Amino acid sequence: MSEGGEQPEKRERPMYSWVDVTAEFKNAASQLSLGELLHDSSFGLFEAMSAIEMMDPKMDAGMLCNQISRKVYNLEQAVEEGLVKIDNLTPQELIGTMDASLATLVTWLEGHSLAQTVFTNLYLHNPYIIEDRCLKAFSIVILKTVDIIRERINRAGCFEEEDFQPMSYGFKMAGDVTEVRAAGMLKEIEDELGRTIRVSCYLWHPNSKKHSFFEEALFFLQHVLAQAVHSRVRFYRHFYALLLLFSKDKTEGLPQAQKLIIQLQELVPLMHSSLHLGIQAPNREASKNDYPTIMGFEPLINQRLLPPTFPRYTVIRSRAESLDYITSLLQRLHTVTMVTELTSLHAALEMFMEFSKSLPCVLARSILQLTLLPPNRRIFGMNPVVDSLKETIRSFIAPPVLSPKCSLYNNSQAKDYVDALLTRAARPMCTLFQITGHNRARQRDKWAHVLEDLSNLQEEADKVDAYLHSLLIKTEPNRSHLACLGTWVLYHTLQTMINYTLAGFELELYAPYEYHYVYWYLSELLFAWLVSTLHRADNFLLEHETLSDQQKGRSNKKNKKKKRPRSLSREITVAQAQQQMFGAYFKAVMGLQLDGKMKHRQFEFDSEEVRYSHRFAPFVSVVTPSMIHYSQYKDMSDLSHNGIEPAPEDLYGASCKGFHQAKCLLESLQMQTEEVQSLLRVAKTNFVVMKLLVSGHKKESVDPPEFDFGQHKVYPVIKVV
Q1: Which residues does 157 contact at the CB level (< 8 Å), separation at least 6?
Q2: Major place of localization (predicted)?
Q3: CB within 8 A of 322, min separation 6: which ones?
């Protein structure tokens, strides 16, 4: 009521004047050709895709909710109806609940909504009303585990909407229970189960003659069930403790984390072997939104809580698949614990790249990111990024300004310039690590975005080099500081350009008729520059070591016999092998085109120049190496000699030679990694194929060749059919 006790005025409902526009709409639509659309500035493709079509089951979540006839109960209602037990659960029920909960957790980690996965478990909605001590402790630890996983992934920030859904929908994560208390509750249950196992083992022991066969069988079943529950309680306690250890500052928890991972890996097979002991969902027909579950799980309880993303059909992983997922996760987390053994940021970046190729889940990627760069933005939580960059540059190219025996080392102006440059370099260098933390499909765009920062950094590095050189020649005329810091930045720029280009093969973006200019660009520009850059850095290292030896008074004879402590020979050899491989692919493709086995594509709406420019568009912002435009590419890649086209056999022979040289280079490497062995197999196979083509094999065939990427995602095996 309003002041003075007067009744509020009654608002009149607005009156609408509806007009039937059906006839006008049909008349306007009849003037459009088949397939033609009317485009309005206020309603484009984006608005059309974002619009919600009312009462369409694919777009309107409410329609899906209305299709279910059975009643949906929350936890309290289900307990009142006697559908859910909160006390005196049997071991089979506990095993089934724990295994089903793990399956929902794994499904959530694969990018589905928390409400549609983990919180289909009614027990997690209010664990405090649960009277069964084991189930209550388990439910609280699951909530705490979910909370710490969300926190770790959110902090790392290396996920997209298809990777992970961070929304909690207001569900409480047992925040009033401390970490110590949550783990302690499970430890108490674990100790009780341990005592039960020992008693049941004594009672059913075959040497015991006190009980009948039936009683011994019953005791044996109790023993097996107690072991199954015990292994699960122990697993969840250790898994929660493992996540807490990864959250510690300065990597203090990694040694203990390694021990826990080993224990968890021993528990997973025990859980796998006892999956059949848990209660199973009844056999009944499943619909798109409703599926059979065990007691305590309700797939429709959160049917209206949808994430702000495109609709996804949520299928809960099976219990066996979820354990396989956990096995893979533990293997990758074990790899994370060894990252502190790496001595430089270059080695760490290489490890991050290899880790990304194994397609780890979002949790493993996030933990790796936070291990190297925790929230305090120090390497491993201890070393400033600038100091780590100095050590990395010193081991890569040994610039005079970072050498203690150089006159620039104690020059305050030189120090200020170097510190300013490396402070500026910290952000793009950290970005390189963060890019590897994203899923493989998203990395390609992110490589393109960081190129502009690296290009600007390279210009600054060249200016700093020029200034430091002007200072150095005043005191040490025989030494040079040109292209030192700039070479280091150029190395990372080239690696980023290569990663961007190779990602196109992995994502299957290139059509076979585009291979020739992609292979040429990789061979003649990117890897040619990379090999040259590595040689320059290696020469600087050699010069630094020679100068150090002379200052120590060692003889030249001893220097020749002395093995170099630092060298980039392995990186140079691998880069040369890759350059030879791509050069061989280019000649093979050109030979196949001349032979009529690969047809030139006739473009209707674009041209080869348009496609070429589109493929290498991100390189426009890079000053060094500058982008090779299409007209330059046509001139530089022309294989004709004095206007005479080469024979296909000549190109096959050149390709055969390239694959052979790549094979020899790879075989010369002392440490044969899995990647090197894979490249070797591809090089050997393609060498044989090219040799057959030189001899006239399948000369009459006009069928296009197959590029088989089964052996390697970037380097295909050429198959002539």
Answers
A1: 434
A2: cytoplasm
A3: 99, 102, 103, 105, 106, 107
Tens-place pLDDT, residues 115-142: 999 999 999 999 999 999 999 999 999 9
Coil, helix or strand for 369? helix
CA distance 400 to 350: 26
| Three state DSSP letters for 393-416 | HHHHCCCHHHCCCCHHHHCHHHHH
Is 239 within 8 Å of 325 (Cβ atoms)? Answer: no
Asked if the structure places residue 562 within a domain, the reply is: no
Q: How does 59-88 read in b/e, with b if 16+ C-beta sit within 10 Å?
A: eeeeebeeeeeeeebebeebbeeeebbbee
Q: Judge residue 583's burial from the number of C-beta atoms within 10 Å of its C-beta, 0-12 exposed, 13-18 middle, 19 or more buried.
A: buried
**117, 260: one domain:** yes
Residue 450's alpha-carbon distances to 164, 447, 623, in angstroms, are 24, 5, 14
CB atoms inside a 10 Å sphere around CB 16: 6
Among candidate residues 146, 165, 158, the one with its CA nearest the CA of residue 371: 158
61: nearest Cα among 300, 367, 392, 342:
300
Structural domain boundaries, residue 417: 342-492
Instruction: State both tokens at 599.
Output: 């047809």
- Please report the DSSP string for 109-178 in residue order: HTT--TTTTGGGBGGGG-GGG---HHHHHHHHHHHHHHHHHHHHHHHHT---TTT-----TT----TTS-
**Do 120 and 267 sit in the same domain of this protein?**
yes
Q: Radius of gyration (Cα) for the chain, nearest Å? A: 33
pLDDT digits (tens, 9 = 90+) for 566-579: 678 999 999 999 99
Element (H, E) at 368: helix 362-372
* Cβ 190 vs Cβ 174: under 8 Å: no
Q: Any long-range contacts for 370-378 (C-beta under 8 Å, 24+ apart)? A: 370/152, 370/155, 370/156, 370/246, 371/246, 371/251, 371/254, 371/336, 371/339, 371/340, 372/339, 372/348, 372/433, 373/430, 373/433, 373/434, 374/249, 374/250, 375/155, 376/249, 377/430
Shared domain for 688 and 700, answered yes or no, is yes
**pTM score, two decimals?**
0.87
- Give 71's pLDDT tier (boundaries 50, 70, 90): confident
Cβ-in-10-Å burial (0-12, 13-18, 19+) of 669 comes to middle
State residue 569 phi and psi, 5-degree precision. -60, -40
Bond from prior residue into 625 cis (ω within 30 degrees of 0): yes
- How far apart are alpha carbons 370 and 157 in whole angstroms? 10
Same domain, 453 and 394: yes
Phi, psi of 707 (to 5 degrees): -110, 100
Query: Tens digits of per-residue pLDDT, 189-211?
Result: 999 999 998 887 766 665 555 66
DSSP line for 320-340: HHHHHHHHHHHHHHHHHHTGG
Non-local CB neighbours of 215 within 8 Å, separated by 6+ positions: 203
The answer to whether residues 120 and 297 touch, using CB atoms and an 8 Å cutoff, is yes
For residue 70, being part of any structural domain is answered with no
Which residue type does 694 have? Answer: V
What is the per-residue burial (b if ≥16 Cβ within 10 Å, else e) of 141-162? bbbbbbbbbbebbeebebbeee
Give the length of the chain: 721
Contacts 24+ apart (CB under 8 A), 332-338: 332/358, 332/360, 332/361, 332/364, 333/242, 333/246, 333/257, 333/261, 333/364, 333/367, 334/258, 334/261, 335/368, 336/246, 336/364, 336/367, 336/368, 336/371, 337/254, 337/257, 337/258, 337/261
- Same-domain status, 192 and 165: yes
Residues 348 and 316 in one domain: no
pLDDT tens by residue, 291-347: 778 899 998 888 888 777 776 778 899 999 999 999 999 999 999 999 999 989 999
* Residues 188 and 276 grouped into a single domain: yes
Q: Which phi and psi (to 5°) does residue 43 adopt? A: -145, 90
